[in-house]
Amino acid sequence: KSTYTIAVLPGDGIGPEIVAEAVKVLNFVAERTGITLEIKYGRIGGIAIDTDGVPLPEETVATCKAADAVLLGAVGGPKWDQNPGHLRPETGLLGIRKQLGLFANVRPATMHPTLVAASSLKPEVVSGVDLVVVRELTGGIYFGEKKRYTTEDGREAAVDQCIYHEDEIERILRVAFELARKRQKRVVSVDKANVLESSRLWRKVAERIGAEYPDVELSHQLVDSCAMQLVRAPKQFDVIVTENMFGDILSDQAAMLTGSIGMLASASLADGSFGLYEPVHGSAPDIAGQGIANPLATILSAAMMLRLSLGLDEAANAVEGAVWAVLEAGHRTGDIAEDRSNAIGTIKMGELVLAEL
Amino acid sequence: KSTYTIAVLPGDGIGPEIVAEAVKVLNFVAERTGITLEIKYGRIGGIAIDTDGVPLPEETVATCKAADAVLLGAVGGPKWDQNPGHLRPETGLLGIRKQLGLFANVRPATMHPTLVAASSLKPEVVSGVDLVVVRELTGGIYFGEKKRYTTEDGREAAVDQCIYHEDEIERILRVAFELARKRQKRVVSVDKANVLESSRLWRKVAERIGAEYPDVELSHQLVDSCAMQLVRAPKQFDVIVTENMFGDILSDQAAMLTGSIGMLASASLADGSFGLYEPVHGSAPDIAGQGIANPLATILSAAMMLRLSLGLDEAANAVEGAVWAVLEAGHRTGDIAEDRSNAIGTIKMGELVLAEL
Ligand SMILES: CC(C)[C@H](C(=O)O)[C@@H](O)C(=O)O
Ligand SMILES: CC(C)[C@H](C(=O)O)[C@@H](O)C(=O)O
């Protein structure tokens, strides 16, 4: 295959700015490797609410379904924060995950040597951190039944159901074990099996799948212990796999350990090679439109796309190598600069990566 | 009132050792202040499973109900880890919370100046941290309906229900606001209102109760953001209030920020002045019986009991002051010692606190 279609959803806030730089990188790589990339733009989040009246227009879903991969900027902003649920940007994000079957969220948290100072943790605790959180993304309490009602005695009540089926648990665990095989071969499965029934099923399935991967070491941690261990000694982790809600919390905590959330990429994968790629950070409405946002997390997300959806390992390595080279040369956007007066802008950072490539 | 009954549940692992030191402190305080303490011992956790066949014997519940306050060591250990749910030590803990109506878990995470080096975070990030996590303890997904079943197409499934009523949310928020009034007057209410119905109800109730406390500043954080902010800048927090599951994770994360979990106390409060007091750390079966466990978190829990259940503020301050004085004099148990070869044992640490008193 030499022609690929990429759906690009810039979204809100800094989304359009950072996505523009990543698209330049993708186009450059395509030219260099002789493949053809067809880029199709779509709307999601606040911009879609404003333009189409819904956070996830059907047209966008169709564009994504017809593509080989999706690149997303970020969604959300204060403008839509007071909207009712179905008209909120995040609802678009949850919708696209479900509709595209993106069940596996893969988030590396890697401490790059030149950025150790940016962390709030001691250098000796974080240098060398290289972990991945694999989060189940289309099940659990996020998508279980929700209810609001008033009891007979007049009290308002709300219910969220957390539900998991064994096949949902099985497929996310396989993603984690396969990934661990290419890494340090250690999986920590995180649950709350001492309290939750869904966690007890999770642990049982983890044991069963783990037996199919005798070369990978499996251990279990309770979610509260894991939150502690991430603070105390994050280097102990290789691959962490967990359910949707715990993964939301732990992957953000793990990201912040590095201190450079503007550097972190993520992939949300479906069966097969299809995936959606986006930076871990949000839409940063406070700095939108100023040309100062860090595009590197989005560029690194594009690199993940090249590797995981397009099978272009070499190109992916080249992009990642270019990013590290630019950092090693001392270039910084404001979010990761120790001295902000020397910080460069979004476009300049994109150009430096391209030049390095 | 000059006679108080204290139920003491030493539990498993290091529980009996650390509780013994705290009881000595309580008895000393009683003598000094001229009150009479009746100490009644009870079994909970693994020791109760072994002796009574259940993790929470009715006799223990009765002893606690007849008391003015409860002091608990810790429960659990590898011996009972493979037991079925109803025969696990944690089930005793969950049971006593529910049966005694202990809906408010209050956990201070304070960075004592002499212990800053113990933290995995940079000194400038953690020194001065002084926050309290107020966790709802008898509702939410912990106590909602649990189900395990097989679907028509033969897949195993598990369900946990997260349910909250507005009065449950209201009373825990009042605990947080009242506490904030005696502190820096700032409450951060943590939820996942962009996804969960129970969080939307939570936020609505928080707004309503917040309006009754115009002197206290209320803000909302999403649980994933809060996990990040606790790593990035923990000093921003005064009082954090949240539901049961999020509180389990965030309070452990907050505790570990200080690096000295062997120092942290907790209170689990019911309506009125009744409460159960226990150290944040667990039963540490690996060091049980060696006389090296740190009794200070339990002694500080006893101080919380003096203040919150017995109304003996002065005595509470004296106990806390004695603990800090002993630390400032350089005495350390192994868990908080920079040089373990100088570490002192459990009994010695208890004696030093008594001597200081
Ligand atoms: C915006 C929100 C619904 C989303 C989530 O909770 O999954 C976000 O926090 C994330 O982690 O991608
Ligand atoms: C032992 C366990 C059931 C308990 C909880 O999750 O509440 C513990 O982690 C705690 O925080 O006291």
From TrEMBL, chains A, B:
Compartment(s) where it occurs, according to its Swiss-Prot or TrEMBL record: Cytoplasm
Chain residues that bind Mg(2+): D224, D248, D252
GO biological process, one term: L-leucine biosynthetic process
Keywords: Amino-acid biosynthesis, Branched-chain amino acid biosynthesis, Cytoplasm, Leucine biosynthesis, Magnesium, Manganese, Metal-binding, NAD, Oxidoreductase
Entry's EC annotation: 1.1.1.85
Binding site for substrate: R97, R107, R135, D224
GO molecular function terms attached to this record: 3-isopropylmalate dehydrogenase activity; magnesium ion binding; NAD binding
Bound cofactor: record note: Binds 1 Mg(2+) or Mn(2+) ion per subunit.
InterPro entries, per the entry: IsoCit/isopropylmalate_DH_CS, IsoPropMal-DH-like_dom, Isopropylmalate_DH
Residues involved in NAD(+) binding: 77-90, 282-294
Domain of life from the UniProt record: Bacteria
Catalysed reactions, as listed in the record: (2R,3S)-3-isopropylmalate + NAD(+) = 4-methyl-2-oxopentanoate + CO2 + NADH
Database matches in Pfam families: Iso_dh
Cofactor section: Mg(2+); Mn(2+)
Protein family per UniProt: Belongs to the isocitrate and isopropylmalate dehydrogenases family. LeuB type 1 subfamily.
Assembly behavior: Homodimer.
Function: Catalyzes the oxidation of 3-carboxy-2-hydroxy-4-methylpentanoate (3-isopropylmalate) to 3-carboxy-4-methyl-2-oxopentanoate. The product decarboxylates to 4-methyl-2 oxopentanoate.
The protein's name: 3-isopropylmalate dehydrogenase
